Each structure stands twice: as C-alpha cells, then as structure tokens.
C-alpha cells in the first residue's frame, strides 16, 4: 500500500491511494518514502511492470492487435506475393500487391514467379524471404518491408542462388527465424532443394549474419524416405525456437497429396542431428473430395444431395463443379440428414447429375502446416489447402490447432483466415495460399 499516515494520540491512520493484494495487520511495515513525482512518469523504470504482460495490458486498454500477412496468389500459373492485414489471425483482408512481377523494369531471376513468402520481424522492419522462379530454376530472394506492410527494398539478386548449393536445379520454400541474441549468426534458415527439375527431395540448413549473405551447411537436414514423405519434401511451414529446441514444420508428398509433420533439434543450429516427430504426419486431408452429386442442384437453391453427408463439416468451404467447366465456391450452413447439405449461399448455376456434377470440401486433398506458433497453451497453424477442381488449381487457407505435438492438429473447418473471392479477376482469384504473418501491434 501507498498513502498518507496521520496520527492522533496513540492511533495511526493510513489513507491508502495505491494498493495491490491483501494482508493482515501483522504483515505491514511503515517506511517514509515521500510523495511520488508528477504522475509517476519521470521514473526510468516507468512501465516496467507491464513487461511480460503486454497482451493483457493491450486487451484491458482495448488496443486491437495488428497482423501483417504475406501470401501468394496465382493466375494462369503465374505467382505473385500479396499483403494482407488483420486484427485477428483468423480474419485477414487483402491490402495490395506491392511488388508485382509485371511492373519489373527488366527481367530478373524471379520474373517468372514469386511464391511461399516467409516474413521475419527484424527491428522495425519485416524481412520477407521467398522463392523466385526464372522459368527454369528456383532461387531464394529477399524483400524488405516496413511495419505497415509497405515495400522498402527489393534485393535484385537471390540471397541463395540455386547453383550455389551443390548440383541443384532449384532451391525453394525458405523457413527463416531471426535470433538477435546470437550475435554471430542471428538469421537461420531451412530450405528445400531439387537436384533436377523443380520438385524438391532434400532439405538443407543455412545461417547468416546480415540476412543477405548466407552460408549453407553441406549436411542435409532431411531427404525423402517412405510413406507420407516418399515423393517430395517442402519447407512450407515455420522454423520455430521452443526454449533451446528448434522445431521445423515441413511437408511431404506421398505421390497423391501433401501432408505435414514436424522435426526438431536441440542445441546448435546446423544441418545434422534433426529428429522426426514420432507422431508424423500431424495434419492431412479432411472431408469429401470429388464426391458425385446424387440429385440436381438448381440455380437459386441452397441444397446439395450426396450419398454420404458425414464426409463434410458444418461451416466448411466447398466447391461445386461440373463437366461443363468452371466451379462455384460456397460454405456448408447445415447438414440436416445423412444425404443432404444445406449451403450458406444460393447457387448461381444449375449442377446436374447428367453433367457429372461433383463437390469437394476445401480441406479434402492436400493440407499443409504453413504459419505455426504457440499461444495460450496451444500450437496453432494457418494451413495451406489445395486441390484440382475441374482442371483449375484452387489454393486457399485453413486453420488447425493442437494442445501437444504428440497428437495431430485438429482442423477447425469453419475457420477461413483469407477466403478466396472467385468473383474478382485478380492475381489471387483462384489462389490465396502460404499465408504467414508478423505481429506488429
């Protein structure tokens, strides 16, 4: 307690104007301290009581969170990187295309595609590493943004060129972490490599002092093996520091679709000594894929008939399409019985059994862990979900969480952090995926 003490005879009276906690009379000691300065604002330790409680303070003051996200979209097979903003990691809105390939003054090594951004907060800036494509080879590039998501600098040449990593044809999918306490090598990366073509089969580690000049460890972190990671490997997920342990969330392809798992290494960061999580894969497909309609769905209706509605989830995004081409996105509002889905929006067109109409839930094919972090007692992830719908690649986001990495992530089908908008003929009309963010407030 803090306040003013007065006395009358043998009685002391304290008028407290600041207090915290409680106690009995025997707990107290009185000390003369004098009145604090004007507003307590002059202390060198002002605000220090908030350290470690920043989120609670902001919540009490009703200061909204602010996230700056980076994702890639594609149109006609050409990828670009967009910016998204949100006050929640479950609700991002598009904020523009700050560095489109079409605006390049000349041809660079990333002029044919930019994909898989990985943002890292460095001081008051955001370093965004990404995979760039020249039409034949993939390399790793860097752009630097301000805390508001505005582009500050585009580094013209790759920070890791494909030909500088052995006999590689491509290096891709950077997963980067920044540790300022490691003064010798604060920047650390794991990336994917392809010896031939552009489909990666190995993972490598690299370190950097300045984030631009990188040293690649010649020892592989991982190479393809069997089962769920038998065909390709990708570092689409995050590299996370968990105490003294580095955790890498990565993806594997089994010849049909992508899934994701985790591996870890304690101690010094390098290419050697990584251990796979015994519970891999930690996330995979959920819901019905390419399911035939059992009755026609007329334009203006909100009903879809299928043989087994248990393959679908309330709230989940879906795509309906037919042999005639094209597709329409919708969401499941209810599942009233074993063969019926009720949608949130009406259908623009008629989808018929004679036209081989089909439906797919957006999480039902390839599902990968992308942004991964630990918060409020749970591991959380923004997912990348994609599938082919009538020959069109439909790529989008999802959300999953788990209390422990000893159990798989649970997909929350109704959460859609960055929805597609097929009505707009933008660079991300059919694809808005690989969303990662930095929190700036």
Structure commentary:
With 441 residues, the protein is mostly beta strands. It folds into three domains: 59 residues, no CATH class; 235 residues, Glycosyl hydrolase domain, family 43 (Tachylectin-2, Chain A); 71 residues, Elongation Factor Tu (Ef-tu), domain 3. The protein contains one helix and 29 strands. The strands form seven sheets. It has a six-stranded antiparallel β-sheet, with no helix packed on it. Strands 14, 15, 16, 17 and 18 form a five-stranded antiparallel β-sheet that branches. The chain is globular and about 100 Å long. The two termini are 33 Å apart. The model has no long low-confidence stretch (mean pLDDT 91).
**Major beta sheet summary:** 6 strands, antiparallel
Tally of DSSP β-strands: 29
Q: Tell me the helix content.
A: under 10%
What Rg do the Cα atoms give?
26 Å
Distance between the termini: 33 Å
Q: Strand share of the residues? A: over 45%
CATH topology of the largest domain: Tachylectin-2, Chain A
CATH architecture of the largest domain: 5 Propeller
**Which segments are poorly predicted (pLDDT under 50) over 5 or more consecutive residues?**
none
Chain oligomer state = single chain
Question: What overall geometry do the principal axes of the alpha carbons give?
Answer: globular
What's the number of domains?
3
CATH class of the largest domain: Mainly Beta
Determine the CATH superfamily of the largest domain.
Glycosyl hydrolase domain, family 43
Could you tell me the mean pLDDT? 91
User: How many helix segments?
Assistant: 1
SSE arrangement, N to C = EEHEEEEEEEEEEEEEEEEEEEEEEEEEEE
